[in-house]
């Protein structure tokens, strides 16, 4: 009987490894196929004009879209970063309080809201309600609302992963709560917090639906107005130009997809490199 159970467990274990390995191979093939398809369509479209000229209808370059994506991504992280990190600190340090549980629940709910719903919220409140029209500020705030819970939860988990003895030793030496948090705990998990910020940046960079409602689209580069000025961005080029019946539009769409993929991979790999180096130090 014992031998039968042993062999049964071995067979089930082997079967589990085979199934997991099969799914891993399928996902790997899908990822490689996507990357090859993007590279095959995007690399032929790379040239100097792509980075120096704005779009002209469904042709031209992507200077305006690259600039707009950088502005929206940086703006959303600058807004969401302090709020998300502060919220994460509160949830970690006051985790037993009722309000902390409410904030954690609201953050989890916000993660599950579709981004297009957040875009509609931004359109109603900022584009129409505040009269900002399509603008970089409306788009950045909408993206910030979307990525704030990710930053908050990443910060909370980073702080909770620290050993309790670190916090206890700081308090035993007479340190106040702000000193413990900002001089002891945060420096000890800065790599994980920074990783959360970078991954949130990659997430906001790849969004389209919220920006259609709040930023619109423009063939021109940014003139420096936070409101009342639509903006170009790479994900709109991918979403819109691929449906046009022109070869130039398809080339721009694949080039935009290649740039977005490159930026996202660079951010992801950079965050892992930073985390590994900070962990070693």
UniProtKB/TrEMBL annotation:
Localization per Swiss-Prot or TrEMBL: Cell inner membrane; Cell membrane
Domain of life according to the entry: Bacteria
GO BP, one annotated term: phosphate ion transmembrane transport
Entry's Gene Ontology molecular function annotations: phosphate transmembrane transporter activity
Protein name: Phosphate transport system permease protein PstA
Main location: membrane
Family: Belongs to the binding-protein-dependent transport system permease family. CysTW subfamily.
UniProt entry keywords in alphabetical sequence: Cell membrane, Membrane, Phosphate transport, Transmembrane, Transmembrane helix, Transport
CDD domains in UniProt: TM_PBP2 (cd06261)
Membrane-crossing segments per the record: 12-36, 70-90, 102-124, 130-152, 193-213, 252-275
Domain ABC transmembrane type-1: 66-271
GO cellular component: plasma membrane
One protein family per Pfam: BPD_transp_1
Mode of membrane association: Multi-pass membrane protein
Record flagged with keyword Transmembrane helix: yes
């Amino acid at each position: 009987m014992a031998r039968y159970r042993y062999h049964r467990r071995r067979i089930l274990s082997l079967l589990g490894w085979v199934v997991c390995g099969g799914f891993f191979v399928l996902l790997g093939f899908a990822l490689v196929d996507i990357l090859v398809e993007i590279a095959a369509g995007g690399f032929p479209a790379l040239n100097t004009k792509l980075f120096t000229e704005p779009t002209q209808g469904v042709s031209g370059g992507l200077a305006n879209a690259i600039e707009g994506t950088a502005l929206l991504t940086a703006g959303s992280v600058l807004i969401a970063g302090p709020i998300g990190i502060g919220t994460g600190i509160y949830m970690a340090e006051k985790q037993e309080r009722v309000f902390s549980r409410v904030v954690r629940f609201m953050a989890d709910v916000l993660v599950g809201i579709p981004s297009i719903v957040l875009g509609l919220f931004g359109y109603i409140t900022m584009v129409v309600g505040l009269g900002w029209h399509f603008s970089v500020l409306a788009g950045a705030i909408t993206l910030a609302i979307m990525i704030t819970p990710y930053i908050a939860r990443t910060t909370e988990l980073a702080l909770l992963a620290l050993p309790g003895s670190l916090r206890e030793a700081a308090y035993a030496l007479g340190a106040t709560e702000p000193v413990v948090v900002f001089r002891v705990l945060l420096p000890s998990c800065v790599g994980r917090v920074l990783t959360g910020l970078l991954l949130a940046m990659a997430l906001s960079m790849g969004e389209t639906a919220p920006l259609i409602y709040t930023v619109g689209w423009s063939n021109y580069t940014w003139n420096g107005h936070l409101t009342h000025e639509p903006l170009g961005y790479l994900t709109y080029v991918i979403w819109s130009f691929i449906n046009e019946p022109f070869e130039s539009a398809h080339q721009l769409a694949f080039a935009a997809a290649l740039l977005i993929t490159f930026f996202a991979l660079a951010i992801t790999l950079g965050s892992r490199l930073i985390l590994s180096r900070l962990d070693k130090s």
